[in-house]
Specification:
The complex is a heterodimer of chains A (about 500) and B (about 300). Chain A is an alpha/beta fold. Chain A is built from 17 helices and 22 strands. Chain A has two domains: about 230 residues, Rossmann fold; about 160 residues, Rossmann fold (3-Layer(aba) Sandwich), CATH 3.40.50.300. In chain A, the strands form five sheets. Chain A has a six-stranded mixed beta sheet, with helices on both faces. A six-stranded mixed beta sheet of chain A has the order 16-19-20-13-21-22, sandwiched between helices. In chain A, a hairpin with a 2-residue loop joins strand 14 and strand 15. About 0% of the residues of chain A have low confidence. By secondary structure, chain B is mainly α. Chain B has a single domain, classed as ABC transporter involved in vitamin B12 uptake, BtuC. Helix content of chain B is about 70%, strand content about 0%. Classes of the chains: A alpha/beta (about 500), B mainly alpha (about 300). At the A-B interface, helix 3 of A face helix 7 and helix 8 of B.
C-alpha cells in the first residue's frame, strides 16, 4: 500500500493552433499533495486529463514509480491506480452510496445480492478514515458529504494517485477543511499521493506540500510550498509583479439614505417550492452589502426576482418607489446588474458586441429617435466603451459568443457601470474569471460604491466577499440567518451559518 | 341478459373482468415505456408502435396459424420501430418529442395501409385461461376468463423489478438515465444503452398491441386502439417509474376503461360517452394530482428533464 511517485516529463499538447501544454514537467513525490495553480485556460485540466487518459499528449512521458507508461484510455489510468474527483459530482443522484460504489466497480456484477453486498461494502469502508452513510440516496447528501462519498469511491476502487479538481468550490469553509484534512492525512500515512487543483492560496499553503504554477500552458514555477510566498505565486500566475494589486481605493463611509429596501420577499424556485422565504434587507447609498452562502440556498432565485426575471411576492422599493423590473423603472431608478454567467444572463450571445453594449440604452436618444435607430451612434458608443474598459474582441461586429469570459464581463461592466447606477446587483461576478479580470471587477465595483452607488453583492466565494463588503449577510435555506459588519466578521462563524446553523 | 341470480353484483364483476382485460395492453406498453424512460429518453411514439404491433400480430397469426408467433412478430415489429426512434433521437439536436409524435403518425399509417387486406379474414386468437371454472354463474365465468398474456404481464412486472434493482445491467440503465455525467465518467455507452432500452420498450409495446387484435374475439380494424400508447406515458409517471406500481396502475386504468361497457351491460344506457371518457378523465386527474405534490418529480430519472 505505498503511495506512488508520478513524474510527468515534457508534456505537450496541441488543439489545432492552440498550444494547450508547452513542455510541462513536474514531479509528484510519493505520499505528498502536489498543488496545481493557474488561471483559467492555463492548462491545468488539460494536463490532468492527459494523466487520466482522456487526452493523448502529442509529446511527453509519464512515469509511475520510475516505470514508463502509455495511457491510451481511462482504463489504462484505472489500472495504474490513477483516479480523479471531479468538480461536478459524478455520483448518480437517485441511487444510494452503496449502489454507486457497486456501479462504479471495475466489473459490473450480473446479479447483486444486496444483503451480502452491503455487508462487504461496510467491511471495506470501515478501514477508511472517514465515513459516509452507505444506504442514503446521494440526492439527500449535503455537498460536503457528496464530496466525501466521491473520495470514498476512489479509495474503494483502490486508487493510489488522487486528482482533486477544485474540490472545495461548493463546500463551506468547515467542510473544505475537513475534506482536505482527510486527504492530507491519507498522503501522510502513505496511502496515496494527490494532485490538488486550486486557485485558493490559503488552501495550497495549508494542505499542499509542493506546488507547480502553470501559465499559458507552460510550467513557470515549481517547488515546495514552504519556499514560495503568496506574492511569488501570484506573480507566477499572472506574469507580472503583483505590487499590492489588492490595494483598493480608500473607502468613504456609507451614506444614510436607503436605496434598496426589500421586505417579506417570497420567491418560488423552478420546482414550485419556495426558494426564498420572508427575506428582508436594506442597502444604503455608498455601501456594499454582501450575501454569503453555499450555492443552492436561494441566491439565484433572489437575484432573478430582483432583476424581474422571476415572480415574487413581498415588497421591493428602490429609493422609495416600488420596483418591478420594468424598463422604465430601471432607467428611472438606476437599477443595473452584474449577473453570474454573463454570456447567458446579461448578453444575447448571437448578437454583436456593439449591439450588446447598447442593450440598456438602444431605445433612448441619441441611439434612437422615435422608431429610427442611429447605428452610427451605436457604433461610436461601442468604440468608446471598448477603449475605456479594454474589451478585447475580434471586432465590434463580432458575435458575443466569440469573446472570452473575462472580456464578456468587461463588456457587461462597461455597459452597466456607465449608466446612472444607483443600485448595482452583482451575483458571483468573478466566477470563472482569471486573476486580472477579477481584480478589475473588484476595482470597478468599489469605484461605483465610492461614487454613491448602493451595491448588493451575492457571492459564494467568502474570501472575495469579505475583501469587498461593508456588511455581510448569510443566506441559508432561503432566509437571512446572520448579519455582521465586515470588520467584525469571523470566517468560522459565518461558515457555520452557511452550513445551516440556525439563526441565534 | 341472464343477470337475475346475482343482481347488482353483475356490475363489479363486469368491471373486474373488464379491468383484467383492458389492463393487459396497458401493462405491456407502460412497462416498455418505463424501461425507455429509465434510460433517460421519452418515447411518445408508442401509439404507433402499438398499432403496428396489432397489425403485425394479426397478420402473422393469420398467415401462420399460431397466435403466439403473431405475438412474437408483433414484438419484433415494435422493436424495429423502437430502433428507428432510438436512432433518430441519437442524432444531435433532434427533438425527442417531435420524433415520437411523427412515429405515431407513421406507425398508425403503416398499420392501416398494410392491414387493409386483414379487415375481413379471421385469425386464430390467443388462448385464455378460464379461472372461473369453479362457478356456475356465467357472469363470474366471463369475468374470470383471463387471457394468457395477462399472466405474462404480471411475470414481466416482477422480472423488470428484479432487473432494475438486482442486476448490474439494471444499475447501468439507471445510471445512464439519471446522470449522463456519471455514466460517461464510468465509461458506460450512453447512446447504445438508450437505443437498446428504446428497442425493449418498442418490443413490449408491440406485444401490448398484439393483445388488442388477438385477444378473444380478436379482429383487426382501424379503431382498435383507444389511445393506450399515449396514456401509458401518464401511467408511467403515476407509477413513479416502478414496474410493480405500473401493474396496479394498469389495473386501475383498465377498470376505468371497463366502466362504460360494464354499465351498459347491466342496462345503464344513459351518459354512455361520459362513462367511456372515464380513463381519460382519470389520466388528467392523475397528472394534476401528481404535479401538485410537494416534490413532484423526485423519482423521475434525472435525464428526462421533465421539470424544466
Amino acid at each position: 500500500m505505498t503511495a506512488p511517485q508520478v513524474e510527468l516529463r515534457n508534456m505537450t499538447k496541441r488543439f489545432g493552433a492552440n498550444l494547450a501544454l508547452n513542455n510541462v514537467s513536474l514531479l509528484i513525490r510519493s505520499g505528498t499533495v502536489h498543488a496545481l495553480l493557474g488561471e483559467n485556460g492555463a492548462g491545468k485540466s488539460t494536463l490532468v486529463k492527459c494523466l487520466v487518459g482522456f487526452y493523448h499528449p502529442d509529446e511527453g512521458h509519464i512515469q509511475v514509480d520510475a516505470r514508463e507508461h502509455r495511457l491510451n484510455s481511462p482504463k489504462d489510468a484505472d489500472a495504474l491506480g490513477i483516479g480523479m474527483v471531479y468538480q461536478h459530482f459524478t455520483l448518480v443522484p437517485s441511487m444510494t452510496v452503496a449502489q454507486n460504489l457497486v456501479v462504479s466497480g471495475a466489473r459490473l456484477p450480473a446479479y447483486i445480492n444486496w444483503q451480502s453486498e452491503l455487508r462487504r461494502l461496510a467491511e471495506v469502508t470501515k478501514k477508511l478514515p472517514f465515513h459516509v452513510p452507505l444506504d442514503v440516496r446521494v440526492s439527500q447528501l449535503s455537498a460536503g458529504e457528496k464530496q466525501k462519498a466521491e473520495i470514498v469511491k476512489q479509495l474503494y476502487l483502490g486508487r493510489k494517485l488522487l486528482i482533486l479538481d477544485e474540490p472545495t468550490s461548493v463546500l463551506t469553509p468547515a467542510e473544505a477543511d475537513e475534506v482536505l484534512g482527510h486527504v492530507r492525512s491519507l498522503t501522510r500515512t502513505g496511502v496515496l499521493s494527490a494532485i490538488l487543483i486550486s486557485h485558493k492560496f490559503h488552501e495550497v499553503r495549508r494542505f499542499a506540500d509542493d506546488v507547480t504554477v502553470l501559465r499559458r500552458g507552460a510550467s513557470v514555477r515549481t517547488g515546495a510550498v514552504a519556499d514560495l510566498t503568496d506574492d511569488a505565486l501570484a506573480e507566477a500566475m499572472i506574469g507580472e509583479p503583483v505590487s499590492k494589486i489588492v490595494q483598493h481605493a480608500p473607502k468613504s463611509p456609507p451614506r444614510s439614505d436607503i436605496i434598496l429596501s426589500i421586505s417579506d420577499l417570497r420567491v418560488n424556485g423552478d420546482n414550485g417550492l419556495p426558494a426564498v422565504k420572508d427575506l428582508s434587507l436594506e442597502v444604503r447609498a455608498g455601501e456594499i452589502v454582501g450575501i454569503a452562502g453555499v450555492s443552492g440556498n436561494g441566491q439565484l432565485e433572489l437575484v432573478e426576482a430582483l432583476m424581474g426575471q422571476r415572480d415574487r411576492s413581498g415588497t421591493m422599493t428602490v429609493s422609495g418607489s416600488p420596483f418591478n423590473g420594468t424598463r422604465r423603472e430601471i432607467a428611472r431608478l438606476g437599477v443595473y446588474g452584474l449577473p453570474q454567467e454573463p454570456l447567458k444572463n446579461a448578453c444575447i450571445d448571437r448578437m454583436s458586441l456593439a449591439e450588446n453594449l447598447a442593450l440598456r440604452n438602444f431605445d433612448r436618444v441619441p441611439l434612437c429617435r422615435g422608431i429610427a435607430m442611429n447605428y452610427g451612434a451605436l457604433a461610436q458608443q461601442a468604440e468608446r466603451l471598448v477603449a475605456q474598459f479594454r474589451v478585447k474582441a475580434p471586432s465590434l461586429t463580432a458575435s458575443m459568443s466569440t469573446l472570452s469570459g473575462g472580456n464578456v464581463q468587461r463588456a457587461v461592466l462597461a455597459r452597466e457601470l456607465t449608466q446612472d447606477v444607483r443600485l448595482l446587483v452583482a451575483s458571483n461576478p468573478t466566477f470563472g474569471l482569471d486573476f486580472v479580470a477579477c481584480e478589475e471587477t473588484y476595482r470597478r465595483i468599489l469605484e461605483a460604491r465610492n461614487r454613491g452607488t448602493a451595491v448588493l453583492l451575492i457571492s459564494e466565494d467568502l474570501d472575495e466577499l469579505l475583501g469587498l463588503v461593508d456588511r455581510v449577510l448569510v443566506m441559508s435555506a432561503g432566509r437571512i440567518v446572520h448579519e455582521v459588519s465586515a470588520e467584525g466578521a469571523d470566517k468560522r462563524v459565518i461558515g457555520k451559518y452557511m452550513a445551516g446553523m440556525k439563526a441565534a | 341478459m341472464d343477470g337475475t341470480s346475482i343482481g347488482w353484483l353483475a356490475l363489479p364483476l363486469a368491471i373486474l373482468g373488464g379491468a383484467i382485460r383492458v389492463s393487459t395492453p396497458f401493462i405491456f406498453v407502460s412497462i416498455g415505456e418505463l424501461i425507455t424512460e429509465k434510460s433517460g429518453r421519452i418515447n411518445l411514439g408508442l401509439e404507433g408502435t402499438l398499432m403496428l404491433g396489432a397489425m403485425a400480430g394479426y397478420a402473422i397469426s393469420y398467415l401462420s396459424g399460431s397466435p403466439w408467433l403473431g405475438v412474437l412478430s408483433a414484438g419484433l415489429a415494435g422493436m424495429a420501430f423502437g430502433l428507428l426512434h432510438g436512432l433518430l433521437c441519437s442524432v444531435k439536436r433532434v427533438n425527442d418529442t417531435a420524433i415520437g409524435i411523427s412515429l405515431i403518425v407513421l406507425g398508425t399509417g403503416l398499420a392501416f395501409f398494410l392491414g387493409k387486406p386483414l379487415i375481413e379474414p379471421k385469425a386464430p386468437p390467443l388462448p385464455s385461461i378460464g379461472l372461473g371454472f369453479w362457478s356456475t354463474v356465467p357472469q363470474v365465468r366471463a369475468a374470470l376468463d383471463v387471457n394468457a398474456l395477462f399472466f405474462v404481464g404480471i411475470a414481466l412486472a416482477f422480472a423488470v423489478y428484479l432487473f432494475l434493482n438486482r442486476t448490474g445491467w439494471g444499475l447501468m440503465l439507471r445510471t445512464v438515465g439519471d446522470s449522463e455525467d456519471a455514466a460517461r465518467a464510468l465509461g458506460f455507452p450512453v447512446l447504445r444503452v438508450r437505443i437498446i432500452a428504446t428497442m425493449a420498450g418498442g418490443f413490449l409495446a408491440g406485444i401490448g398491441g398484439s393483445f388488442l387484435s388477438l385477444s378473444y374475439p380478436g379482429s383487426w380494424s382501424e379503431g382498435l386502439s383507444s389511445g393506450q400508447g399515449i396514456m401509458a406515458v401518464a401511467l408511467v409517471i403515476f407509477a413513479r417509474w416502478r414496474s410493480v406500481n405500473a401493474l396496479s396502475a394498469s389495473l386501475l386504468f383498465g377498470g376505468a376503461g371497463a366502466l362504460g361497457p360494464a354499465l351498459q351491460g347491466i342496462g345503464v344506457t344513459g351518459y354512455y360517452y361520459l362513462f367511456n371518457a372515464a380513463p381519460y378523465i382519470l389520466t388528467l386527474a392523475i397528472m394534476v394530482a401528481s404535479t401538485s405534490r410537494a416534490a413532484p418529480f423526485a423519482d423521475a430519472p434525472g435525464e428526462l428533464k421533465l421539470h424544466r
